[in-house]
Amino acid sequence: MTASPNPLTVTITGAAGQIGYSLLPLLASGSVFGRHQPLNLHLLEIEPAKKALSGVVLELEDLASPILKSIVPTTEAVEAFTNCDVAILVGAFPRRPGMTRRDLLSKNIPIFSSHARILEKVAAPDVAILVVGNPANTNALVLSRAAPKLNPRRITALTRLDHNRAVAAVARELSVSVSDVSGVAVWGNHSSTQYPDVTRARVDGKPVLDRLGGHDGVAGQLVPSVQKRGGAVLDRRGATSAMSAAAAIADHLRSWLVGDDADGKHVSMAVPSDGSYGVKEGVWFSFPVRCPGGGEYEIVQSVEFDEFMQRYIDATKEELFAEREEALTLLD
Ligand code: NAD
Ligand code: LMR
């Protein structure tokens, strides 16, 4: 996507929530779509958050951003999604204590299917959609089922936060700069079954598995620490990740829609499965992808699975197909 003199219309749902609060300044500063790309921001909230949203708008105005051409706060999804080029779907029903994934799904299916039907009708025809609200992979599937006219390749879900966590964890472990780390990828679901593959990590192009303690070392430490990182943040902050989630949303959109991986590194993104690596069609699965920019992506095809990796992939695949079954039952 090259900067256009025409404003890009970006819709953020759940805009008055904690991720919205960290994401909006990144958008307004131009660090996502560029400092010369004018933006219209459409901010969707539910009625109880209307007053809080109006406060967020005051702050957005006070940023005095030269690229913000208009700000539309609304509680009407049709108004929010009309002509939108990019939809960032953050708004979701929050997980409450004691809720199972199925409970969470049943609360979120009505939200994502209703947003899907509206997006299909009123958004720009090639709208790019990023699903953030949890369970993100399965919400993306629900969205696609409810809006069959939307191109599934334009619907992605966020696993870049997990990717960034894994890269940063390797860098910390080896006391190197994150920019020297490559080869890391996150596979599967944005949940504790995800497989953050650090076994292929390289530093300055050289394999570092031995320095990370070999397969046993990563299975005992790095993999579970990345899988459980969201829980660790929740435990300490008393709230789920927001600053790092917003930064990951910015990274995801920049890679996917602008294209910033010219250095040859891949990134991780949940995209519709196409049979690659034995993951049958029908779920949004996180793979390593390369993004040339402009909304295209290619799943990296050259990864060879060993038994160690296959076990993790099978577990996260099984969870995603089980979530799919539950979602389809609830959708009927
Ligand atoms: P939050 O509760 O602070 O904000 C969510 C906002 O969404 C609230 O302001 C709420 O009023 C709004 N909302 C609820 N239903 C809505 C609807 N139907 N339409 C529009 N807005 C609606 O939560 P948060 O910390 O901003 O997190 C939002 C979501 O992102 C959660 O589901 C969370 O689990 C998820 N999350 C995902 C990742 C990821 O990596 N995929 C990371 C962190 C958080
Ligand atoms: C995270 O990874 O930090 C979040 O997805 C956790 C959550 O349940 O919101």
From TrEMBL:
Q: Where does NAD(+) bind?
A: 14-20, 108, 132-134
Would you say which domain of life the source belongs to? Eukaryota
| Keyword Phosphoprotein applies | no
Sorted alphabetically, which keywords does the UniProt record give?
Answer: NAD, Oxidoreductase, Tricarboxylic acid cycle
GO function terms (MF aspect): L-malate dehydrogenase (NAD+) activity
Q: Which residues are in the Lactate/malate dehydrogenase C-terminal domain?
A: 159-327
Catalytic residues of the enzyme:
190
State the reactions this protein catalyses.
Answer: (S)-malate + NAD(+) = oxaloacetate + NADH + H(+)
Task: Provide the binding site for substrate.
Answer: 95, 101, 134, 165
Task: Report the Pfam families cross-referenced here.
Answer: Ldh_1_C (PF02866), Ldh_1_N (PF00056)
Q: Where would I find the Lactate/malate dehydrogenase N-terminal domain in this sequence?
A: 10-153
InterPro entries per UniProt: L-lactate/malate_DH (IPR001557), Lactate/malate_DH_C (IPR022383), Lactate/malate_DH_N (IPR001236), Lactate_DH/Glyco_Ohase_4_C (IPR015955), Malate_DH_AS (IPR001252), Malate_DH_type2 (IPR010945), NAD(P)-bd_dom_sf (IPR036291)
Primary enzyme class: oxidoreductase
EC number(s)? 1.1.1.37
Q: Which PROSITE patterns match?
A: MDH
NCBIfam families referenced in this protein's UniProt entry, alphabetically: MalateDH-SF1, PRK05442.1
Name of the protein this chain belongs to: Malate dehydrogenase
The scientific name of the source species is: Campylaephora kondoi
Give the gene name.
malate dehydrogenase
